[in-house]
């Protein structure tokens, strides 16, 4: 990296903002079609009823909440990379910080849709807003779902502001190199950034404080999401390890998603010299670490189930690896804890194809982790007469595809129209 | 787009949006311009009447709100059911409001129906009958179900005007063998009652008296009177039968036997009685003849032929002969076959031997169903129709085309052109479909009539609301069409008054009004017949009956059993009866072939596989259901499904087991053969998802429906040391005294005046599902049909859960499960919008219009009793008229659950407030409690130290399901008491 000049960095990034070709627009159109499909599935569900999804009694939460937790999890590592690693002065985060933060913002947006989709009466969602009203209603702040509302909206606000603040100097660079209409747009977006000394001084201080502010959120958001389950009485949910377990899992999945996104990005835009293999390696090493934490959490759950002498707890943990959803459990266990261990080998870490495939595998595994937690626990809880199974319906698949389309749609729009690599921060590394 | 178009579209859009998002059931309330004097909006009117869903004839009171009947409850004054109803009685209203009910007469012309007016139809009826009467005697025939005496008298008179003899009373389950046996042993050609409540040991040789046998609601009450825990004692009930019906499931021991071998077991017992000298009081001739006929039935032979275990045989003998007041019941309709007469005869003889004075047989009280015609005469009628000897056949409330075996060729007999068939049915059932003219008459709840179900209990019927159709009542129709001027009365009501005057001496109007207010004439009038001297028993007949017992234990036997849900098929168009699962299999909307797992293996099939059963003339397909509650080698199918007509809910649901039965009848009693050597069976290779609602049959060693041994209760239950685990967590009452600072995080909830709670005695619960049906009727619960049951979306607020023991898989425990109204409710804490709301009387209210549908409450409810409206469920018109106006109908997207019948609590509050007093204990009666035939459910306030529930929770059997979660449920169960046999 050190052989790059400042100008080369600028040019590489600015090149990515050149008018896109047909294949780009074809991709955008395809993704938009996916979004429309998801939206029409949702519309259909609103008109007919949530029955069009596969949920039932006892499994009243299905893929909507799996996807919610999945996307919130994805949203995690962006802030981890940009804030926590910034505080730790981990230099390797600089080239990927922007893309990871972008991922965070769009993943939170996608995640934020799912609670609405999940609701039986989505049109009544404003009942959850705490404002004085003639209905004499006040939300129940004892409910973990209210925690969610607060945590997710805070996280979205802070991460978007952090993302935008970090982008300011880069937006100015784009402005300086743009002409015509784009110049006007970026003039507004860059908010009069001139690069004067005071501006830099305020900026670096502000960025540092933001990083410090955002850091607890990384921990809190997914802890709060985990309380949706941990505060319930359901065996398999009601456990104190859930908060750290969810946070580790979220980072695990988020880092995997970073690799999934960075590899095509560096290839398409020729970022090989900026997002070097060392950067990816560093991410891969972190994945090994988070994978071990996740594996430890899985083990702890089983240990506690055995140690607790609670027959229900023991039953559910015996059932998960052997029962109707055993496939899901083993996908989760193998993909999240075993396969990432391959990253221990330098050969695997430095092989782009291997990196990419393993990151996809971890994403799948983490989706299944949420599946296992959300579905299996209630499928076999207290009263055996009530037991039942769940399988997703076509509408749910449609909405799931729609959510992935939405995320990639937003992400693709971003990388082609905004600087996806932080030029300033990459330059910081060059010294 | 111009401005006007925009406004139009905008206006339409908002209207469409508003309409699209609101629940549609009946939003308009009209008040009457001239309301009847006694109608007060919001106040129900109650009309006493009689349930005619089966011949048992329980008394009902029909709740009429603003001109329409919305609920049936048992008539407390009626001696048969004493205020209780079974599930069929609860669902009777769905017949009145059936969306496929025929509203206008129709005539078949060239194979197609043409609607005509009632006047035209009556005219055709008159012309056809007069013409037939002119052609000769008995050319007009009348087929009906069991009728009240008055109506039957009128029908007979009408038929004699038509130059014909009396009506043919068709009941698919007509107790032919029992009648013959009663005649043979006691000289009573009929069906008498039993004083079951006085028995200490009850043995049933297959009689399903808790489901359909004679008078199930009355028997349920009598049975629990002898079988309840009383002074640490409890009667014993043993059932010998080839499969577990609900009745057998309530037995202390189910003695599995091979089909048809009940007779062998009974004869074996007679032999034992003779051996031990219990029969010495019998006349010498009878005794010696019995010795002769029972000689082959040694213990070894009985065990070999019946498949009883030695232990069961010994216990049966010991318990029976040690009993002070033993009662032996015969067999049920499911066992009707060549041996059923022998079984019933042997049962009667056993009663005679055990207690020569037969104190438990109530000869003076006779069941009306005894008037049913025996099967051979019905088959003869069909032959006469085929032979062209019946010009006009009227069919009233009977469906022989469905209920007779295909060999009887009833459909051809009814369809052939020589007979002009007039169906008086209000439904397009199979028989009506073959008729030439359909002239619907009113249903029992819409007519004036009288029905004496049993001697001394003359229930009356009166219209519980204005007529929904213009249909005449059968009585009026006959008076108008069958009599030349002057008819015996101007209207049937007048005729009925006359009859009551003649037969029961009711003269003054006050007597009339009183009779109709109480629901009937409940005198202690009894039939005068007394049993014959045992010396007069025809001994050769005994020889003949017992000589022809044939049992081949190696046969695979197919059994068509009457069903508590659909009886003989007449309940099949009631959605509740289909939706509420069979108590034992928990299957809804389907008619599985039930068999032992080993039998399934022998037949090369398995649970959920579609089995084809074929007997040469007919073929039916039904899914397999396996459990150990069926003796190996038996295939049992409940009757009632497999209709090819009978409206949208009945048509093409399940299969009809009658199709596989032979047309032949038992030679000596004329009964049908409902138990036959199995037809050819073939696994179709296809699988059918079974619409059962249970997730597991086992309790998985959890404290859900525990039982306690009678011997432990006798020894005295010792209090256990309280702990914090599932098994030793103490009973924690949902009132401030249940607060424990070591366990509770939040301070105790203070209640104002009342804390409603329910106590369910599992020892009394027989699993009949009457409560669940009453709940559907009271609380406007949506019916989701098979498709959504398979998806796990049933809406029942109250489910009677069924658990099998882990060792044998044959011992059944029922657990009515509804919202537990917890003090420390897990659902309340997790709702973001406070839709589950804890009120000041402890009830966990679900506020529907606050609910946004997060479903967190359902996830967090350990009992999973919350029901989510996945769709807006439909009530096809006019079923919506049954909806209870005191209960909101719920639209898609909201959660609902048992409310402890909050509307009834509120009603009690209003009454108490008007009278300036607190609500009395027992004043609030929930719908489930109201109908429970065994009084298993009690309801009241725990804050009242004198209340019934407060006293019941002190019972050492009291426990809370999953109490260790410390949710402090307000539904407290009393453990089932089991006795080892």
Architecture overview:
The complex is a heterodimer of chains A (431) and B (981). With 431 residues, chain A is mainly α. Chain A contains 15 helices and no strands. Chain A has helices at 6-15, 22-48, 63-87, 94-118, 144-177, 180-189, 197-230, 242-269, 277-308, 311-322, 326-338, 346-349, 352-379, 394-417, 423-430. Chain A starts with 5 loop residues before the first helix and ends with a helix. Chain B is of the alpha/beta class and 981 residues long. Chain B has five domains: 45-101 and 444-476 and 483-522, Phosphorylase Kinase, domain 1 (2-Layer Sandwich), CATH 3.30.200.210; 124-171 and 376-439, Rossmann fold; 176-371, Dimethylsulfoxide Reductase, domain 2 (3-Layer(aba) Sandwich), CATH 3.40.228; 554-687, Barwin-like endoglucanases; 707-818 and 900-978, Alpha-Beta Plaits. In chain B, the strands form eleven sheets. A seven-stranded mixed beta sheet of chain B has the order 5-4-16-15-14-6-7, with helices on both faces. A seven-stranded mixed beta sheet of chain B has the order 25-20-24-21-23-22-26. In chain B, strands 11-10-9-12 form a four-stranded parallel beta sheet. In chain B, helix 9 packs across helix 10 (284-294). Chain B starts with a helix and ends with a strand. At the A-B interface, helix 5 and helix 10 of A face strand 29, helix 28, helix 29 and strand 33 of B.
Spatial separation of the terminal alpha carbons of chain A: 10 Å
Beta-strand percentage of chain A? under 5%
In round numbers, the mean pLDDT of chain B is 91
Instruction: Give the structural class of chain A.
Output: mainly alpha
Q: Low-confidence segments of chain B, ≥5 residues, pLDDT <50?
A: 10-26
Q: What sequence of helices (H) and strands (E) makes up the elements of chain A?
A: HHHHHHHHHHHHHHH
Please state the overall shape of chain B, judged from the principal axes of the Cα atoms: globular
Number of domains of chain A: 1
Number of helices of chain A: 15
CATH topology grouping of the largest domain in chain B: Dimethylsulfoxide Reductase, domain 2
Number of strands of chain A: 0
- Counting DSSP E segments of at least 2 residues, the number of strands of chain B comes to 38
CATH class of the largest domain in chain B: Alpha Beta
Main interface: chain pair and counts: A-B, 55 and 61 residues
Give me the oligomer status.
Answer: heterodimer
Number of domains of chain B: 5
Rg of chain A, Cα atoms, Å: 22 Å
Helix content of chain B: 25-40%
């Amino acid at each position: 990296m050190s052989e790059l000049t400042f100008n080369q960095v600028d040019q590489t990034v600015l090149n990515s903002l050149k008018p896109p070709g047909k294949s780009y627009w074809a991709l955008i159109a395809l993704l938009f079609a996916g979004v429309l499909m998801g939206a029409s599935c949702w519309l259909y569900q609103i008109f007919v009823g949530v029955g069009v999804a596969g949920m039932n009694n006892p499994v009243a939460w299905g893929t909507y909440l799996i996807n919610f937790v999945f996307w919130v999890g994805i949203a995690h590592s962006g802030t981890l990379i940009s804030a926590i690693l910034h505080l730790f002065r981990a230099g390797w985060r600089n080239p990927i910080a922007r893309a990871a933060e972008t991922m965070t913002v769009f993943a939170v947006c996608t995640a934020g849709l799912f609670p609405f989709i999940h609701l039986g009466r989505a049109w009544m969602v404003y009942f959850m807003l705490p404002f004085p009203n003639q209905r004499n209603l006040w939300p129940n702040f004892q409910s973990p779902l209210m925690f969610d509302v607060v945590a997710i909206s805070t996280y979205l606000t802070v991460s978007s502001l952090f993302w935008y603040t970090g982008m300011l100097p880069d937006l100015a660079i784009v402005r300086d190199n743009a002409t015509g209409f784009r110049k006007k747009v970026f003039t507004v977006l860059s908010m009069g950034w001139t690069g004067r000394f005071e501006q830099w001084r305020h900026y670096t201080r502000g960025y540092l404080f933001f990083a410090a502010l955002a850091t607890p959120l990384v921990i809190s958001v997914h802890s709060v999401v985990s309380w949706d389950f941990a505060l319930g009485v359901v065996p398999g949910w009601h456990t104190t390890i859930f908060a750290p377990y969810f946070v580790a899992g979220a980072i695990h999945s988020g880092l995997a998603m970073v690799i999934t996104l960075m590899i095509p990005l560096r290839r398409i835009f020729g970022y090989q010299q900026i997002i070097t293999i060392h950067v990816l390696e560093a991410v891969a090493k972190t994945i090994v670490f988070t994978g071990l934490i996740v594996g430890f959490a899985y083990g702890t759950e089983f240990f506690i189930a055995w140690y607790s002498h609670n027959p229900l707890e023991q039953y559910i943990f015996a059932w998960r690896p052997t029962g109707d959803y055993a496939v899901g459990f083993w996908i989760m266990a193998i993909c999240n804890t075993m396969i990432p261990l391959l990253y221990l080998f330098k050969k695997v870490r430095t092989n782009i194809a291997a990196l990419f495939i393993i990151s996809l595998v971890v994403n799948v595994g983490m989706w299944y982790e949420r599946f296992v937690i959300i579905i299996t626990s209630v499928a076999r809880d207290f009263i055996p007469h009530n037991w039942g199974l769940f399988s997703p319906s076509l509408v749910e698949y449609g909405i799931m595809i729609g959510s992935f389309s939405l995320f990639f749609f937003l992400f693709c729009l971003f990388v082609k129209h905004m600087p996806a690599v932080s030029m300033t921060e990459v330059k910081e590394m060059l010294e | 787009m111009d401005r006007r178009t925009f406004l139009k579209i905008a206006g339409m859009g908002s209207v469409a949006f508003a309409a699209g998002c609101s629940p549609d059931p009946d939003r308009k309330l009209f008040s009457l311009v001239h309301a009847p004097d006694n109608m007060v909006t919001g106040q129900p009117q109650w009309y006493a009447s009689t349930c005619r869903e089966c011949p048992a004839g329980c008394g009902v009171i029909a709740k009429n709100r603003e001109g329409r009947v919305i609920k049936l409850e048992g008539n407390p004054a009626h001696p048969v059911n004493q205020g209780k109803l079974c599930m069929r009685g609860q669902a009777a209203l769905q017949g009145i409001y059936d969306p496929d009910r025929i509203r206008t007469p129709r005539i078949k012309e060239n194979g197609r129906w043409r609607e005509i007016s009632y006047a035209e139809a009556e005219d055709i009826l008159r012309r056809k009958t007069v013409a037939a009467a002119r052609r000769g005697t008995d050319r007009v025939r009348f087929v009906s179900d069991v009728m009240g005496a008055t109506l039957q008298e009128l029908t007979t008179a009408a038929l004699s005007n038509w130059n014909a003899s009396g009506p043919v009373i068709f009941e698919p389950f007509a107790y032919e063998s029992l009648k013959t046996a009663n005649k043979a042993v006691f000289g009573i050609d009929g069906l008498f009652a039993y004083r079951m409540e006085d028995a200490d040991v009850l043995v049933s040789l297959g009689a399903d008296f808790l489901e359909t046998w004679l008078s199930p609601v009355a028997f349920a009450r009598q049975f629990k009177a002898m079988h309840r825990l009383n002074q640490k004692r409890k009667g014993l009930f043993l059932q010998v039968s080839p499969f577990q019906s609900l009745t057998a499931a309530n037995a202390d021991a189910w003695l599995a036997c091979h089909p048809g071998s009940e007779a062998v077991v009974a004869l074996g017992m007679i032999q034992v009685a003779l051996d031990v000298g219990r029969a010495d009081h019998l006349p010498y001739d009878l005794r010696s003849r019995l010795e002769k006929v029972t000689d082959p039935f040694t213990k070894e032979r009985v065990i070999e032929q019946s498949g009883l275990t030695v232990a069961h045989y010994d216990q049966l003998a010991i318990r029976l002969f040690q009993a002070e007041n033993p009662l032996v019941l015969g067999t049920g309709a499911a066992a009707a076959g060549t041996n059923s007469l022998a079984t019933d005869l042997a049962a009667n003889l056993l009663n005679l031997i055990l207690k020569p004075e037969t104190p438990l047989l109530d000869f003076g009280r006779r069941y009306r169903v005894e008037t049913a015609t025996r099967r051979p005469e019905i088959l003869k009628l069909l032959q006469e129709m085929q032979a062209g000897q019946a010009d006009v056949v009227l069919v009233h409330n009977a469906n022989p085309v469905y209920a007779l075996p295909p060999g009887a060729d009833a459909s051809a007999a009814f369809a052939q052109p020589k007979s002009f068939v007039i169906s008086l049915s209000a439904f397009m059932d199979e028989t009506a479909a073959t008729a030439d003219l359909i002239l619907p008459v009113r249903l029992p709840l819409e007519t004036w009539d009288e029905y004496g179900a049993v001697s001394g209990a003359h229930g009356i019927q009166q219209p519980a609301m204005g007529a929904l159709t213009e249909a005449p009542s059968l009585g009026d129709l006959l008076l108008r069409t069958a009599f030349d001027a002057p008819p015996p009365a101007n209207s049937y009501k007048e005729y009925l008054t006359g009859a009551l005057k003649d037969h029961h001496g009711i003269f003054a109007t006050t007597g009339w009004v009183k009779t109709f207010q109480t629901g009937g004439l409940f005198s202690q009038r009894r039939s005068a017949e007394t049993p014959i001297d045992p010396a007069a028993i025809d001994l050769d007949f005994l020889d003949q009956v017992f000589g022809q017992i044939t049992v081949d234990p190696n046969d695979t036997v197919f059994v068509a059993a009457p069903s508590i849900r659909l009886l003989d098929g007449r309940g099949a168009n009631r959605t509740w009866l289909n939706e509420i699962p069979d108590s034992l299999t928990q299957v809804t909307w389907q008619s599985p072939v039930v068999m032992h797992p080993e039998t399934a293996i022998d037949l090369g099939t398995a649970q959920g596989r579609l089995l084809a059963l074929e007997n040469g003339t007919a073929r039916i397909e039904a899914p397999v259901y396996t459990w150990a509650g069926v003796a190996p080698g038996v295939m049992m199918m409940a009757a009632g499904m497999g209709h090819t007509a009978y409206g949208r809910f009945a048509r093409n649901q399940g299969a009809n087991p009658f199709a596989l039965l032979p047309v032949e009848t038992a030679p000596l009693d004329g009964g049908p053969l409902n138990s036959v050597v199995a037809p050819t069976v073939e696994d179709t290779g296809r699988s059918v998802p079974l619409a059962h609602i249970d997730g597991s049959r086992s309790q998985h060693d959890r404290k859900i429906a525990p039982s306690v041994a009678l011997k432990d209760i006798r020894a005295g239950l010792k209090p256990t040391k309280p702990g914090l685990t599932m098994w030793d967590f103490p009973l924690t009452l949902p009132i401030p005294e249940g607060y424990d600072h070591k366990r509770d995080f939040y301070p105790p909830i203070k209640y104002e005046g009342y804390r409603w709670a329910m106590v369910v005695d599992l020892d009394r619960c027989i699993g009949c599902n009457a409560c669940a049906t009453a709940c559907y009727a009271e609380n406007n619960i949506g019916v989701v049909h098979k498709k959504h049951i398979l998806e796990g979306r049933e809406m029942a607020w109250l489910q009677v859960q069924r658990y099998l023991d882990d060792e044998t898989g044959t011992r059944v425990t029922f657990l009515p499960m509804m919202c537990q109204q917890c003090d420390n409710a897990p659902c309340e804490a997790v709702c973001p919008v406070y839709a589950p709301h804890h009120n000041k009387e402890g009830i966990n209210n679900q506020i529907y219009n606050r609910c946004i549908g997060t479903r967190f409450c359902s996830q967090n409810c350990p009992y999973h009793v919350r029901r989510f409206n996945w769709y807006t469920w439909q009530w096809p018109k006019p079923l919506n008229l049954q909806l209870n106006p005191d209960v909101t109908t719920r639209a898609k997207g909201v959660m609902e659950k048992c409310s402890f019948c909050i509307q009834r609590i509120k009603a009690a509050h209003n009454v108490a407030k008007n009278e300036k007093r607190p609500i009395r204990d027992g004043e609030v009666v929930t719908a489930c409690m109201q109908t429970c035939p065994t009084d298993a459910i009690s309801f009241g306030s725990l804050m009242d130290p004198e209340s019934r529930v407060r006293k019941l929770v002190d019972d050492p059997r009291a426990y809370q399901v999953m109490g260790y979660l410390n949710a402090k449920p307000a539904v407290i169960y009393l453990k089932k008491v089991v006795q080892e046999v």
